[in-house]
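Supplementary Methods, section 5.1.

A reviewer requested that the exact input to the structure prediction be made available. We therefore reproduce it here, unchanged from the version used in the analyses.
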Amino acid sequence: MSDLTLQRLSKRVRELRSEMGMTLQDVAHLTGLSKALISKVENGVVSPPIATLAKLAEAFEVPIGEFFESKDGTDNAVFFPKSKRKRVQGRLSQHAYNYELLVPSRKRRDMQPMLITVDGKNYKFKLMDHAGEQFIYLLEGEMSYVVGDQQYEMTPGDSLYFNARILHGPKLRRGQKAKYIVVFSER
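The structure derived from this sequence is encoded token-by-token as follows.
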């Protein structure tokens, strides 16, 4: 199932780029990402971290939820049971993120919640940045979270809120695992 979801995500990124008449170089220029990375995302070789998805969404001028298979709803509230969520797990990804979109609609929203799982034994530390603001709530495990030149030691129940344009990212030791909720705005 996770491979299928990653395939759908990859296909949608490629479709959006094609619909907009953009080359890999165009997207690389707009996002600051390498053409090679964008190609790997489009081919399902890597499962991109949130910051990468946010940069791609900004370049395509779509909400990040556009990358995930979903049904548009017109209701003022969205209920999305856990049993319907799809988990995306990276293959050959340096960042080794697993994430689940917590709201399924492609409808434009001011914020996007996701559930992130990171395993330190497969994770390679890298700082990212993207438009908007970000909120993190640690559910399980322990991790350091870096925002700019500050490092925050997080345990379950801790939260962190910051400007996502500042370089940031989780930092885990080899034996650490963390599961946390991220809510970020795309503006």
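The CA atoms of residues 7 and 44 lie 6 Å apart. These observations are discussed further in the main text.
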